[in-house]
Amino acid sequence: MDRIDRKILSELQKDGRLSVTDLAERIGLSLSPCHRRVRALEDAGVVLGYRAQLDHGAVGLNFSALVFATLREGDRQAVEAFETALVDIPQVIDAQRLFGEPDYLLHVVAQDLPAFQRLYDESLSTLPNVQRLTSTLVMKRVVQDRPLPL
Fold first, then answer.
1. What is the CATH number that goes with domain 3-43?
2. Rounded mean pLDDT of the chain?
3. Which residues contact 41 (CB under 8 A, 6 or more apart)?
4. Which among 13, 51, 110, 112 is placed 20 to 30 Å from 4, CA to CA?
């Protein structure tokens, strides 16, 4: 990856809806080479996709919590079962496996506190191999969806 690829990625992170023509103009490259580079970055898996960023509150998801999950067992089957089940809960918008304890950090959104409580009781606490869940409420999002520093 060279300087031009990094410029392309930087611009796409700012605005994924840029046309290839506008992108080429912004980075000072002609249309065909720019298009080839974007396609190569996509094919190599550097660009994973394009999506719209939504305001949580504007779509009725005014409640956000961080949930820490500790598993009973850490073997391959336990981890796979937990992660497979987690994928089926759309309110979990980010999940990270951690070293040490707890085992996972989940970012969960819901309409309000009662909706979060139902989700916690009916879905999160019933995930396979869960030993303990601990949650904390998000007061305010300070940094969000920041582009990678290229």
1. 1.10.10.10
2. 96
3. 5, 8, 9, 47
4. 51
